[in-house]
Predict the structure.
Amino acid sequence: MFPIRDSIPTRHFPVVNVSLITLNVAAFLFQVSLSDTELMALVEQFGVIPARFAGPGGIWSFAVQVGAFSLFASMFLHGGWLHLIGNIWTLYIFGDNVEDRMGKIQYLAFYLACGLLASLAHILSDPGSLIPTIGASGAISGVMGAYLVMFPRSKISMLLPIFYIPFFFRIPAVVFLAYWFILQLLDGTASLVAGDAVDNVAFWAHIGGFVAGAILGWLLRDRRYTEPETYVTYKRRAQPMWPGRSESPWL
């Protein structure tokens, strides 16, 4: 299943969310411009390596050695085009609404905090690992957690290709996000049993980011915010695009 869009329109242009997407793309374009040796050195320096944090001096020693910037830089590096596209598409779907409700400055601080807490969860899950971890997945998982508590009545339009035939359908956001989170828990538990990451994915970073995002999202949400009408409501009020139907079949 692949999410296409959500049913909650935004009231303001998502400046911060678009800027985060742009920074992720720009950082990846810089990555692909490097040689293999240079790219490996970049990932080694700015990736989150749990053993570094678990060593003498811990996180503070590491921060002094390579600079506090490196603790955030890993959030903007990616392991390939599919990794990048999957992350920025998810951020595009869910981030604009969270920014809309949380406010621009709070959303930026929230995003970075979720990324840091996701990295902490990964470090605690495998403190002896020497494998660098990069990507925005932890921070974006936090955005998904916040979306769950802020927009529980939202619907997510999904694409499911079956034998190369695309099928479109809509499910509640709660169902999609709960399904995604349970998969992370199952794979994260499997990684603990196996003693290593499953498919080189830091599932506990996803889990930690999601939980942090749900908690911070609940605390930072604008309580004066009133949820706008959904796209589906607008479609039903407007002239149907498809004869004999009240709404477009792909919503």
